[in-house]
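Suppose you are handed a protein chain with no further information: no name, no annotation, nothing but its sequence. What can you learn? This example shows the usual starting point.
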Amino acid sequence: MKLVGKDLTCERGERVVFKGLDFAVGAGELLVLKGPNGAGKTSLLRLIAGLIEPAAGHLELNGGHKDLSIGQQSHLVAHQSAVKPSLSVRENLAFWSEFLGGGDIEASLDAFALRPLADYSAALLSAGQLRRLTLSRLKLVARVLWLLDEPTVGLDDNSTGNLRTLMQDQLDRGGMIIATTHVDLGMGDATTFDFAALEARQ
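A reasonable first move is to predict its three-dimensional structure. Written in C-alpha cells, the prediction is:
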C-alpha cells in the first residue's frame, strides 16, 4: 500500500499555501512534516483527509479500498478535539464507535489511561485529558492512514509514551502515519519532509 501526492498545489482564499509538492509514504512508514508555522503542514493533512481540495495535482492511495475515499480510510487528529462536552468519556467513545463503524471501547479507554475518567463529563476534562480522549480514537477503529497534527501537544511523558506505542503498533501492522511536529517524536526511523526546503525552491 502506498499514498502518493503528485505536484500538489494548495490555495486558501487568494493565497497559495504551497505548490509543486510531491511526497510518498508506504506501508509501515512514518512521514514527518516539518517547517515554519503557516508553511502548509496542516493544510496538507486536511487536503489528504478530503476537507479541502487541491488547486492542482492529485493524490493516489495504491492498494486502498477502491470504494472509499482516502479520507474515509484515514484518522485525522487535529488541534480541535471533536469531543462532545455534554457526553461522558465513555459516551464519546461509543458515539465515535457507532459513527466510524465499530470498535473496542474498553481497549480505547486503556490506551491513554482513561478508565478512571470513563464516567466523567467531557466538559470537566483538562486540556491534556481532552487530548488523550481525542487520540484514543486511534485505538478505537482501525484505519490504514493516520494524519496527526502536532500529536504530542498537551501530553505528559506517560501519555506521550502511550502514543508512541500506538504509533509503532500502527506501523508494525503495515499502516501509514503522516505527522506534523516541532519536536522529536522519538520514533526512530522516519522520513522527513521539510516545507522550508519546498519554499526555497519556489
